[in-house]
Design goal:
10 strands, two-stranded antiparallel ribbon, eight-stranded mixed β-sheet, globular, alpha/beta
Length: 305
């Protein structure tokens, strides 16, 4: 479906394919208005869904509640476009209604397949729409893991065109330290099962893949903003993940002269783990906060370069 064929906006594009290896390698797109010269001052918002790297029920559609609110928001003029990325999933053979099968290439992914797909989608979007670094990468739960993995780098082979990293990342109810997550919930085998299913059994791999181990002062030179958003009502991911990531960001924030190059913000949300995207309000307001900050500080950041 392409609503722009009728001259109407917002324009929604579904199932935009970025790779043909799997039916899950696509993104959905929304343009609030026709693209034009003023978009060079606007921000793109790119969403990465959660779902424990494996849940077929959590898809690009998870962004729809927030998107509906954002399209009606008074700050919509700051946003050039929206994209929601789908990526290959890890096996889930015991899913109650949609179990995976070994022959399904879209549901047999292992790290780094997930992040490779996200990078491929970003590469496709940047090539097609030319927004470069002017985007806010937003992830929920394991989507936040993937968002920060983009800033970590070191996932691409030399034969691939390098993805331009975002100027801002917003993590919502994120998973940031896989080793600490499994240790904290060691009395609940499901957590280790999920991590092993997506990353294998090596704790060394878990540590290397964890955003809390990122050297962002070395790998994310153009980073202007991080936002860590977490609800104390989250019943699945404890605040420890939020705290560990905040500490890691503080330790890896480079400076220009006496000023910090990147701003690291913290937002307190309300709602359970999935409610923050299911209801949309918490996600939408977090995005507005991040976009406003990027727009308001754009001139001062440019002056520091």
């Amino acid at each position: 479906m392409d609503s722009s064929q009728n001259g109407s906006y917002p324009d929604f594009k579904f199932n935009e394919v970025y790779s043909e290896d799997s039916s899950l390698q696509y993104y959905t797109l929304c343009l609030p208005r026709p693209l034009g010269p003023d978009d060079s001052k606007r921000i793109w918002v790119v969403w990465i869904h959660g779902g424990a790297w494996r849940d077929p029920q959590v898809t690009t559609k998870s962004f729809r509640p927030a998107l509906g609110l954002l399209l009606q928001h008074e700050k919509i003029d700051h946003i050039a476009g929206f994209a929601s990325i789908s990526y290959r999933l890890s096996p889930y053979p015991d899913h109650p209604t949609n179990p995976s099968s070994p022959g399904d290439s879209g549901r047999s992914a292992k790290h780094p397949d997930h992040i490779h797909d996200v990078l491929a989608a970003l590469r496709h979007l940047q090539d097609k729409y030319g927004f470069g670094e002017r985007y806010l990468l937003v992830g929920h739960s394991c989507g936040a893991t993937l968002a920060f993995q983009v800033a970590m780098g070191n996932w691409e082979s030399g034969s691939e065109k390098e993805v331009t990293k975002p100027i801002g990342i917003l993590g919502i109810e994120g998973v940031y330290d896989l080793v600490a997550l499994v240790e904290q919930y060691k009395e609940i085998p499901l957590y280790e099962e999920i991590v092993t299913n997506a990353f294998g059994g090596s704790k060394g791999v878990w540590a290397e893949a964890s955003p809390a181990s990122g050297a962002y002062d070395m790998t994310w030179a153009n980073g202007q903003l991080t936002v860590l958003a977490h609800s104390s009502e989250d019943e699945l991911i404890d605040e420890e993940q939020h705290t560990l990531m905040g500490k890691a960001l503080k330790e890896t924030s480079s400076t220009i002269g006496s000023r910090r190059q990147r701003q690291d913000l913290v937002l307190a949300l309300a709602g359970k783990h999935d409610e923050v995207w299911e209801k949309g309000h918490a996600t939408a307001e977090s995005i507005v906060t991040a976009v406003e900050h990027l727009v308001e500080h754009a001139d001062s950041y440019s002056a520091e370069q």
